[in-house]
Design goal:
The chain is built from 6 helices and 3 strands. The chain is mainly alpha-helical and about 150 residues long. It has one domain: Winged helix-like DNA-binding domain superfamily/Winged helix DNA-binding domain (Arc Repressor Mutant, subunit A, Orthogonal Bundle). The longest helix has about 35 residues.
Length: about 150
Amino acid sequence: MADKMNNDELSLELFIVLARAYNSVVAHSSRDIQSHGLNTTEFGVLDLLYHKGPQPLQKIGEKVLISSGNITYVADKLQKKNLLVRKASPDDRRVIFADLTDEGRDFFGKIFPNHQQVLVHAVEGLNEDEKKQAVELLKKLGLSAEESFKAGR
């Protein structure tokens, strides 16, 4: 019974430490994103389009983890800032693609390298081997949690 209690307590401690570490790293990212007049969702959409090219609006929501209604709102805001343009699909007029404008591509191309350095700085508490180990362990944890969630546990 004592081992079970220790494992339970360790699981709770892991959750707390993981949440605090996540919040601390995200704080670095959020501050940098906000300094450019964006919110994290807008940044995520620009990042996706910059690195992956034009995307159907409905797929953007899936990839940056926002609802389809919210992606329309975010796309409208980015379009008003002249960073994003909507284009009808040549194959299916029901599908609308989002793409960066030239201004959007230039803007993101200028801010992304510094943002990447902000993230590098945020995780500099670990050396290269520790980062590799953390990536491996967190992937394992995430996949396991996802499986047990889908199984209803």
